[in-house]
Fold this protein.
Amino acid sequence: MKYLLETHDLATACGLVMNRHLNAMLAREAGTRDGRDIEQLHMMRVALRKLRAALLVFPGAINKPEREALESELSWLGDALGDVRDLDVFLDRMALTRSELDSDSAGNLREVDRDIERRRSAKRDAMLTALNDARYTGFVAVLRRRIEKLVLV
């Protein structure tokens, strides 16, 4: 495994950072698809955001048109993951709020919970559609090839 060193040139440093975060993202994919542990989705999204940040930190490592194309795909995937994650966080906060209410007031939130659960289910279906799409697998392949060129693996 290669580590980021101050002797690495810009392209190598960018490639190593992006490789680390791509691997982290992919390591959380199965758990995100499974959906039993919402932290898997959270960690996949964090890795994705770090990939986006790497493009900003190392702007000279990748030519502008290719960088913009990668940013666009990362944004698309981030939207698909983020829609579900935002509702997960909302549901967690609603559960905490409900636990602090009397039973009548907590009961009044049940319809809100059902509505949010329906919306989350639809967003989760959309996220899974995105993860199953050729656009996603193509993006991962393009990003992997770009990283290999940067690092010269």
User: Anything to note?
Assistant: The helical segments are 10-27, 29-34, 38-57, 64-99, 103-108, 110-132, 134-151.
